[in-house]
Automatic annotation (TrEMBL):
<protein>
    <recommendedName>
        <fullName>DUF7791 domain-containing protein</fullName>
    </recommendedName>
</protein>
<dbReference type="Pfam" id="PF25053">
    <property type="entry name" value="DUF7791"/>
</dbReference>
<dbReference type="InterPro" id="IPR056693">
    <property type="entry name" value="DUF7791"/>
</dbReference>
<feature type="domain" description="DUF7791">
    <location>
        <begin position="71"/>
        <end position="118"/>
    </location>
</feature>
Length: 118
């Protein structure tokens, strides 16, 4: 996949064949059989080759999927925490519908919209 990429030759000419082969071997070794990780790294490396990034920047791409996954996990955890707090404050009067918070019953919305509750 990488070796057949049109810009692969530019990496080989910049670093040498051994260094480029070492990069491929690092991808294999660090993947631990996780295809998604290989796909992300390969995509990042191909994008870097297209942008004429230097080898050091290509090497950086090997760690990028872990950083991306950690960021996603942190944001997911924060979102779950927000939803739990909203549920606690509203005592079940609101519910989570995918990524939105909605009134559990239409009558609750109507009640909160009355002039007395404004």
């Amino acid at each position: 996949m990488l070796r057949s990429y049109p810009r692969w030759d530019s990496l080989v000419s910049e670093t040498g064949n051994d260094q480029a082969d070492s990069l491929v071997q690092q991808i294999i070794d660090r993947s631990s059989g996780v295809f998604l990780w290989v796909t992300l790294v390969t995509w990042l490396l191909r994008e870097g080759l297209t942008n004429d990034d230097k080898y050091e920047e290509e090497d950086y791409a090997l760690g990028e999927p872990e950083r991306m996954i950690a960021t996603l996990q942190q944001r997911t955890s924060q979102a779950a925490s927000v939803f739990r707090r909203v549920n606690g404050w509203c005592k079940g009067l609101l519910e989570r519908n995918h990524d939105e918070i909605e009134f559990l019953h239409r009558t609750l919305y109507d009640f909160l919209s009355t002039p007395e509750m404004q």
